[in-house]
Queue: 3 jobs
Job 1
Amino acid sequence: MSARLLDGAGLARQLKAELKAEIEAFVAAHGVTPTLAVLQVGDDEAASGYARAIARTCKGVGVAFRAETLPGEASQAQAVETLQALNRDPQVHGIMVLEPLPAALDLDALLDHLDPAKDVDGVHPLNAGRLATQRPPFFVPATPAGGIRLLEEAGVDFQGKEAVVVGRSNIVGKPMAMLLLHRHCTVTVAHSRTVDLPAVCRRADILCVAVGRPEMVTGDWVKPGAVVVDFGTTYTDAGLKGDCHQESVAAVAGMMTPVPGGTGPMTNVQLMTNVLQAARQAVAR
Ligand code: NDP
């Protein structure tokens, strides 16, 4: 048996084309271009690479992109000031703070100053709380939202299923667990202190992995026929690797997301969807 590979790259292309048309219609109707501002402090290569990727995605769908870059030695107060200026700017609809920040800065304290109405990455505590309590409007972090969308498009049935999420970050693991719970899965969240992780994973009808350890999950951790969602992205000498060992997992799973070409491309398109949502909410106010 070989798992059906879920083509996130293909679905993302299709969704981007649809989104581009929606954004064109929005601009025509309101004379407002949805705009995403990205705040970067310092010149970390991963953050810069992510900023370039976001800029390309914005261009592809007709979202305006604005880069706000502060020098690496900027103080917490300067970062807060820049963020607050973006909060006040009516031409900016979505704001993202790029990670990693220089070690001297406190990310959580900075994010507390982000306007929740512009928090398209879903990282402000108010949006996390709204997601947990299912009180719209809220922004769902793009990576888990994109992963769920990929499963929905593949016709995955969630209700009553055993779901295991490995990883409990605020940006991937925890919100993914919430989204599965809201779809009536029975959810277990596993992490670095989980005892006998392979046995926990083997319980899963839907196994989602967001750890960042390349090829950690092997086929013997997977229940035959399970749906496996791999959020891991680690650059190795052998190229981009997910958290799952693709060959052995694909031999056991019913469906799985490949790396590359699975959850990654869905993240970008979901972020753009969130920017359009923010712009819609702004014009409705
Ligand atoms: P974090 O480092 O914030 O979280 C990793 C989680 O994995 C933690 O909860 C940690 O547990 C857990 N973990 C670490 N080691 C183990 C282990 N040996 N066994 C079980 N659990 C373990 O990472 P992120 O959530 O930000 O990212 C996870 C992965 O997803 C990364 O590869 C990242 O690159 C990728 N990613 C992909 C995106 C995409 O678009 N596809 C977007 C964002 C991230 P503990 O809490 O106990 O420390």
Job 2
Amino acid sequence: LVAYFQPKLLAGKRVLLTAGPTFEAIDPVRGITNLSSGKMGYAISRAAYEAGAQVTLVSGPVSLPCPVGVRRIAVTSALQMHATVHQQVAAHDVFIAVAAVADYRPAQVVEQKIKKRLQASPPSIELVANPDILGEVAALPSPPLCVGFAAESENLSEYAESKRRSKKIPLIVGNLIQDGFSGDCNTLILFDDDGAHPLPPAPKIDLARQLVARVALLLEKV
Ligand code: CTP
Ligand code: CA
């Protein structure tokens, strides 16, 4: 019902999002992942749909239902997320990268389950870097309006602003991980060319609607 009364700030716009963690396989039963419930990205997907957008959500493994009206593409690894985003991005006006992408993956996936061998020294895992999905999209010849997230454990403003500059994106959303992790509430700060805009602690869906309003404002400017 609430959705019915939301202003249609993104009417006619197409919004692509990433959300959740990625999972990088080590062997058939083990892997490396990040902690991410997916709740913030799913809330933004829902808010964007309520605001009239056509929404594509590229989601890592989470245990959340797909928001009504949203087209979800499920992926597991960062490489799959990367490929899916590149397939989809051209048809979109906005890209919001909320996913907690693993920065590294094992160089090789071992085909059979690795056995414990107590006599031998513990195995080590060689890692290679994953592509920076947001950074690459922002560097496309005619990129969509790009929005990033910076979840930090310290120095939030400094790290968020430096990511905004290095990835060359107009808007980054900062949050301290101790404020929002896995819960239904969060505290955010939006950083754009006009400076820092703190959004006080609120349910993730309320924050998502405020973010959507900011994105709509930026879209008017471009
Ligand atoms: N991101 C991405 N692809 C990656 C890594 C990050 O698209 N391989 C996106 C995230 O979805 C987020 C933003 O980039 O929107 C910032 O992610 P973050 O992990 O905070 O930044 P990094 O540049 O990876 O820096 P670090 O992990 O060292 O803080
Ligand atoms: Ca990272």
Job 3
Amino acid sequence: MGKSSKDKRDIYYRKAKEEGWRARSAFKLLQLDQQFHLFDGVQRVVDLCAAPGSWSQVLSRELFEKRGIEAGSGKTVAGSTFGGKVVTGESTAQKSSTMEKAKIVSVDLQPMAPIAGVTTIQADITHPQTLKMILDEFGGEPADFVCSDGAPDVTGLHDLDEYTQAQLILSALQLTTQLLRPGGNFVAKIFRGRDIDLMYFQLGLLFEQVTCAKPRSSRGSSLESFIVCQGYKPRSGWSPDLATGVMVNKELPLPISERVVAPFVACGDLSEYDSDATYTLPSGEGVRVSLDPVQSPTCPPYKRAVEMKRKN
Ligand code: SAM
């Protein structure tokens, strides 16, 4: 089964390569934006679990390119911190006099190839020091929008996978409570499992509106969807704290009277491609070639195996 076969089975995989996105996930964020207008007036964004970087590409296009702002080429600088290497890429966009405040900070365990106007931090979002690293990049200013497309490596043990995913969302939310300005928006990938209603309820205490959204580019056969949390409203007198955890903080009451039922919304134009369908490719010599991925993985898990094989 080659690239060409995947091109046929997955129209968004093919379109991503044709349009220059590093991953098909770009379409998910674009379709969420079609529905929720996530980028309107946004200046400072945090993209959690961002590698290989297609969401960051979308953000760079929205915050710089579409607004006619030169983003700079993005630079990577090696630093050092807990547990290994931290890489930060610095945008030259901040030096632009027209758009001094626009800033995108992207975080992932994996290294990311530079993206125009994006500062990348190689770090674990569950580690307490990561918050400080992001805050430092914003120079104390809060973010307007935080998104997380995080997914842990799947073990195949369903309960363990579900638990790890839930912990990742929790970490993303904990960071968000410290980074987001009141009124700001948060979007995160979720897998609709057994206890999802509890999460909607808890999110409903922190945001004006919580919606569960399924973009057309997310396969219908997958449990994946996205929580779109609009209008951050930290309760007066409540100070979020990484140590205790947002959901168990005693000062965040959970009154049953405020129970939240999150509406479910399918988003993306109905005339757009169906991610579960197989599309026929144009045939004939010279009509089309299967393109290579836009960005090869910078540090794939199989890298060492390939090196060992090469050395026999
Ligand atoms: N949104 C990305 C894009 O558009 O290219 C794709 C994200 S990918 C589906 C999920 C990412 O979550 C992986 O790159 C993985 O390294 C990252 N991840 C998983 N656990 C993490 C953690 N604890 N801290 C930071 N990143 C994590």
